[in-house]
Amino acid sequence: MQYKLLASDFDNTLVPFGEPCPRPAVVKAVKKMQAAGGKFVLSTGRGYCVINKQQLGGIRFDYAITNNGACVVDRDGAIIAEHPMTNEEMYALVDFCEDYNYPLQFNFRDGYYAYCEYESLRDFYAQLSGSGLTCKDGEDQDRHLIDMPHAAFACLPDEALEAFNRKYGHLNLRFMMVGAVREGSWHCYDIVREGIDKGVGLADLCDVRGIPFIADEVGDAAGQRLSFSLVACFDPLSGQNNLIRFVCLHSLRHLDRMDAFKLNILNRTGDGCHAVWTGI
What we know:
Blueprint: E1 3-9, H1 24-35, E2 39-43, E3 63-66, E4 71-74, E5 79-82, H2 87-100, E6 104-108, E7 111-116, H3 118-126, E8 136-137, E9 151-157, H4 160-168, E10 174-182, E11 186-192, H5 198-209, E12 213-217, E13 230-234, E14 243-248, E15 263-269, E16 272-277
Parallel strand pairs: 1-2, 2-3, 7-8, 12-14
Antiparallel strand pairs: 1-13, 3-4, 4-5, 6-7, 6-9, 9-11, 10-11, 13-14, 15-16
């Protein structure tokens, strides 16, 4: 069976935390799949502007699902599909974070712009040596006059999210906790519009490529909805239809094996196959 698409998360999936790039066996497997005609899709919460290609270990992705599904690009950064924030959503975040001096950045096409507490975010990224993450001083708060951001990032204490939703809950913004808890029980959040996740980005990509899309989601122990970390996509069984299924996983710790790259066929049905990439 020839795989048409293979998508993987970036941080702590394709590139394990504490390591500079993917492991050699992963690089070899991805390149082999591409040489056979398959496409590799990088899926990440990062914007295209801060994907550190040196961290990819020689892998050249064909497409990237960026900003947690809010923007899909080709390998050159040309936008294929996007779901930018609205003025109301952006201004709500600015108003709230300005009131309490919470660090806030917006993810634009050309960079991350810190609209609130620039120096705090600049110093935070400086601690992440080799990550490729950085931000620009956006405290003039005028970058959105060119185009709207695809996502936001904020550092908030425990009580802040509840306070935001009391005032702006009608916007239904999606806050996704990322990284470790910071000093003083502060958390970092990626923020996108309601209903946006990496599965949406994958569906957008499949739509552009004319590939029917079927998604299977797997929640964690708390039953919360999670964006996929790994996805395998298939050639048609019939020779006429391309079918995709993906398994929605929080990270590789939900998998039994993490020591080798392989594709594991979970089941076969009359309408296609179901697989998951089980190793890094």
